[in-house]
Amino acid sequence: MHQADTLIKALHDGREILIHFEFQTTDSYDPEMPLRMAGYIIRSIEIHRLPVYSNVIYLGPNAGRNDPGIFEQNLENHNIFIEYQVFRLSEVDGQQILDQKNVGLIPFTPLMKHDPDIDDEEWLRKCIQTADSLDVRNKTEYLGSLVILGNLVHDSQTIINIIGEETMRQPPIVEYVAPQAREQGKQQGAQEATRKHILEVLSLRLEIDTGQSFKSVLEKIEDLEILENLHRAAIVVENLDDFRQILDEYSE
Questions:
Q1: How confident is the model at residue 2 (pLDDT cuts 50, 70, 90)?
Q2: How many other C-beta atoms are found inside a 10 Å radius of the C-beta of residue 211?
């Protein structure tokens, strides 16, 4: 069972409420996000007996495009309608965040929309310069957060190099992000190994050349849980069409 990422108790018009944030780098398929969010909302209300303001924040540039922000069941006398807010950082005006110098949001700005007249590297420099100009308690940790988040769409070494050029903080940043970078490397290695195992199983069991058929589709799937599910499916499916149908369901 999935657990909610962040659940915060707050006061709104003198009344206690819960604010729920779910962070997603990619789309959710098992289960799909509307069903997941409905589950989070209902369980939170049941446990805490407080109203819930629920939000999902998509970090990846292509994630959440088909999320309707609604879970809906239409059955006679058994209708269910649950609504939540959807935010896609790739659609947020990053320059406005920089201009406002919003401390909490600036580490996310490398993921946000920027002026098309400037290239990605120039945008990264603006984000880093603004972050470094702020009076925060632990600047190394703050800039490290920008590296980790920015690495979702930009090369981490490029970000670290720009930080070194702009702030003279490169060695502490490298020390701070090294464990996260190693963990990300392990995750990417596991993803690649699982993709390889899927293709090998299909080739051995069904005696087909799956390299061109499925490799490009599998490379677009970054969720390790989904890849592991596909590996199990490859072991048990009876024919190629069955696997293709399962793959289509996960990659929609």
A1: low
A2: 11
